[in-house]
């Protein structure tokens, strides 16, 4: 894993030399993702919307943190990502950038803040960079978004593209549906090459058949980040509430749950409620 410190002078048990790996990175930058791709090293991304999870995931060695517009569902209670505003994204991103010291922090561009024109996209992205201090932005779309990506990158704003299933276009796509099957795979490849040529430093592939994602990953020089796209992409991303079991609703097929945070918090909240009601909290040791 790229976050693990290593040295060519380290030795394994019984004096056997260890295999050489990439040196530890103090602060992840966009060029590190490409270097890891070239070295065949996988990297990680999780969503984060606040300072506490940012600190925790950063400490765990997660390489990149996405302040996603998935916050519309997981934080703000919207039914889709569409209602999320730029002001809401900026507020959440401020907490994440203050909590992360190593991870690369990427801020999502909400629906309606970049589609109209390259200039609209630049002004919106500039606000995210200036007011939240994110290191990069992410926007959805392929060929049709190439002018926006080019404008941002020429203006000094790193861009992570997002193709395949694009949640902001849920209504136009007819719901949560896998993208890139059959002849649509060629269109996905065109989108992937278009965002690379426009200057994107990486591209998210969401809900794409594994063989198509593998082909995209092989053809592109920029890193690919998969979510529901198989294990041949250069990196992986998950929504943290899905991955760690805070979400008790429908979980996508591509999610692996690594914990049951919901049960832990539920039990703790019940214990607190019981202690207050029976008078056992606050106890003398909690009182001045």
From TrEMBL:
Q: How does it assemble?
A: Homodecamer; pentamer of dimers.
Q: What does this protein do?
A: Catalyzes the reversible reaction in which hydroxymethyl group from 5,10-methylenetetrahydrofolate is transferred onto alpha-ketoisovalerate to form ketopantoate.
Q: From what organism does this protein derive?
A: Nocardioides panacihumi
Q: Can you tell me which family this protein belongs to?
A: Belongs to the PanB family.
Q: Which PANTHER family match?
A: 3-METHYL-2-OXOBUTANOATE HYDROXYMETHYLTRANSFERASE (PTHR20881)
Q: What keywords sit in the KW lines?
A: Cytoplasm, Magnesium, Metal-binding, Pantothenate biosynthesis, Transferase
Alphabetized HAMAP family for the sequence: PanB
> What protein name does the entry list?
3-methyl-2-oxobutanoate hydroxymethyltransferase
Q: Specify whether Transcription regulation is a keyword of the entry.
A: no
Positions bound to Mg(2+): 69, 108, 140
Reactions catalysed according to its record: (6R)-5,10-methylene-5,6,7,8-tetrahydrofolate + 3-methyl-2-oxobutanoate + H2O = 2-dehydropantoate + (6S)-5,6,7,8-tetrahydrofolate
Residues of the active site are: 206 (proton acceptor)
The region annotated as signal peptide is none
Which coenzyme or cofactor does it need? Mg(2+)
Where does it live in the cell?
A: Cytoplasm
Q: Where does 3-methyl-2-oxobutanoate bind?
A: 69-70, 108, 138
Cofactor binding annotation: Binds 1 Mg(2+) ion per subunit.
EC annotation? 2.1.2.11
UniProt cross-references to Pfam families, sorted A to Z: Pantoate_transf (PF02548)
Annotated region described as Disordered, given as residue ranges: 1-25
Major subcellular site = cytoplasm
Q: Where is the composition biased (Low complexity)?
A: 1-24
Which pathway does it serve?
A: Cofactor biosynthesis; (R)-pantothenate biosynthesis; (R)-pantoate from 3-methyl-2-oxobutanoate: step 1/2
């Amino acid at each position: 894993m790229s976050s693990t410190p290593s040295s060519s002078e380290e030795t394994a048990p019984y004096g056997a030399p260890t295999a050489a790996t990439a040196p530890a990175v103090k602060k992840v930058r966009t060029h590190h993702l490409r270097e890891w791709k070239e070295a065949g090293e996988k990297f990680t991304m999780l969503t984060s919307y606040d300072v506490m999870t940012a600190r925790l995931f950063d400490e765990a060695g997660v390489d990149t943190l996405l302040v996603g517009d998935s916050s519309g569902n997981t934080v703000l209670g919207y039914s889709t990502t569409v209602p999320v505003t730029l002001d809401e994204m900026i507020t959440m991103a401020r907490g994440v950038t203050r909590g992360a010291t190593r991870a690369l922090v990427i801020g999502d561009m909400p629906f309606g803040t970049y589609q109209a024109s390259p200039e609209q996209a630049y002004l919106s992205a500039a606000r995210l960079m200036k007011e939240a201090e994110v290191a990069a932005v992410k926007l959805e779309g392929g060929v049709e978004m190439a002018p926006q990506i080019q404008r941002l990158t020429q203006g000094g704003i790193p861009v992570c593209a997002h193709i395949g299933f694009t949640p902001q276009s849920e209504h136009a796509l007819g719901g949560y549906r896998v993208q890139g099957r059959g002849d649509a795979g060629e269109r996905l490849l065109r989108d992937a090459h278009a965002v690379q040529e426009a200057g994107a430093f990486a591209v998210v592939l969401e809900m794409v058949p594994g063989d198509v994602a593998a082909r995209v990953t092989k053809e592109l020089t920029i890193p690919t980040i998969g979510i529901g796209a198989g294990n041949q992409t250069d990196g992986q991303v998950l929504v943290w509430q899905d991955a760690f079991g805070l979400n008790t609703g429908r979980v996508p097929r591509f999610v692996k749950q690594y914990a049951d945070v919901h049960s832990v918090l539920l039990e703790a909240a019940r214990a607190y409620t019981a202690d207050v009601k029976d008078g056992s909290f606050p106890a003398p040791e909690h009182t001045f």
